[in-house]
Amino acid sequence: MKPSTIFTAIALVATSELVSARNCKTGLNYCGRLLLSIGNYEQQVHQALVDSGQPTDKKHIDDALFHCDGGKNGDIHFLMFCGENRCVDGGTDRNDYCPSSRLFRE
Question: So which residues are the signal peptide here (predicted)?
Fold first, then answer.
């Protein structure tokens, strides 16, 4: 294999990894499961739950609601736990929300 072919293959892999991970949009609320799907949020979600005294099991990770504070790392903080399978995806550029709370809906 030619060196230029190897370099191109490595560049494509590196670029695809950069494109697949992104930050949350500042000011919006996100279900934990959606944060995990858009970027490298595993550690931030876990830490936000710990900082708020919440359990860190899968249901709390997936169905907690977080606010995107922004910044270069896409910082977040915990808002509330919606209940198992209760956090609702609000759609593109809209807040996710807990159906039992009108606090964070738009």
Answer: 1-21
Q: What are the pLDDT digits (tens) for 49-84?
A: 999 999 999 999 999 999 999 999 999 999 999 999
Give the Cα separation of 63 and 84 in Å (integer): 6
The parent domain of residue 62 ranges over 23-106
If one counts the domains in the chain, the total is 1
Residue tagged 């500042």 (tokens): 26
24, two tokens? 């949350």
C-alpha to C-alpha distances, 1 to 4, 12, 30, 59, nearest whole angstrom:
8, 16, 45, 47
In a domain, 3, yes or no: no
Q: Does residue 91 sit within a domain?
A: yes
Contact status, residue 25 vs residue 38, Cβ threshold 8 Å: no
Q: How much is the pTM? A: 0.77
The residues, ordered by sequence, that sit 6+ positions from 25 with a Cβ below 8 Å of its Cβ are 68, 70, 93
- Distance between CA atoms of 27 and 8, rounded to whole angstroms? 38
